[in-house]
Amino acid sequence: MAPTNILVTGAAGYIGGSIVADFLTGVVPSLEKGNIIAAVRSEEQAAALSDSGVNVTRLDLTDGEAVAKTIVDHDSTLRGTGNEIFAIEKQLADSYPVRKTDVTVIEQAQSQGVISFIVIPCLTHGKGTGAWNKLSVNIPIVINASIKRKEVRRFADNIKVSYVHISDLTALYGRIVEKILQGEEPPSGSEGYYFSTSYQISSHHFADQLAAALHARGLVSSPKPEVWPSAEAAAEALGVPAKFVEYLWNSGCVIHSPQLSQANSIRDDAPSTGIGSGPKIGWKPKWDEEKFFRHIDDEVDAVLELGKAKSSLVDSLFAAAKE
């Protein structure tokens, strides 16, 4: 089939940058680097990707005409990041900005005749491979706050939180793109939800292991975590709006609904688990809970090396909290 150009928006970000970098290493064997268009926002970001071998373009995603022109000029396919899931998200769209975005992307794509896919990462971790931002948001914020306060804190409720390593997430994107390039038609639109849950860890177990790891390095005063006295106290320490603090650090990727009970796993080796499910496309994550904790010092090392994520997520949450 004819070569297909792939436009990666947010190519300077943690996930987008890692997708570009990992695609260049052969995650998608049939995709040539010359067919990757990396969209970034600033000249500084463009310069960071200039030696990667991909086509780099500056793009303001709020400018619809500019986005359309970029797609047409590069003859590219814009790929996003079951009907029952869509219906649930639409009902809950105003409860969280990401849900509203998912619904908007699907409805706008359908109205324009564009095929869309929604890839939903849970708590993503690991040092990224991109040229600009190599840090996720969630875990680095917790590590930085813990080091600053000389203590690790956790929420009172012990929630199972879904995790995925950045390399497994880029591999999932790779599987979807590979299917498209092979001429297959993976489920899309309102049926095209792809959940990247690799494994789950209880929030208390994570806090226990992080406290032990930081204490062993002399970065906190106690190997045992304390409990946040309130969501407001946690929000102030972590630097996010109180409205969203538990969404970010004390919630799992699960929607309990009878309509979802028959969903298929996107993993060939995993059972159906409600919202952690989707079409089977042969995705097989390499990370699990045991491997995560075996490499928890790598999470600390990345933060000590890089500081914090170059991300606008927290700023966007403060803007959303004012609405």
TrEMBL record:
GO terms for cellular component: cytoplasm. It comes from the Eukaryota. Pfam families: NAD_binding_10. Residues 10-134 form the NAD(P)-binding domain. InterPro entries: NAD(P)-bd_dom, NAD(P)-bd_dom_sf, NAD(P)-dependent_oxidoreduct. GO terms for molecular function: aldehyde dehydrogenase (NAD+) activity. This is NAD(P)-binding domain-containing protein. It comes from Didymosphaeria variabile.
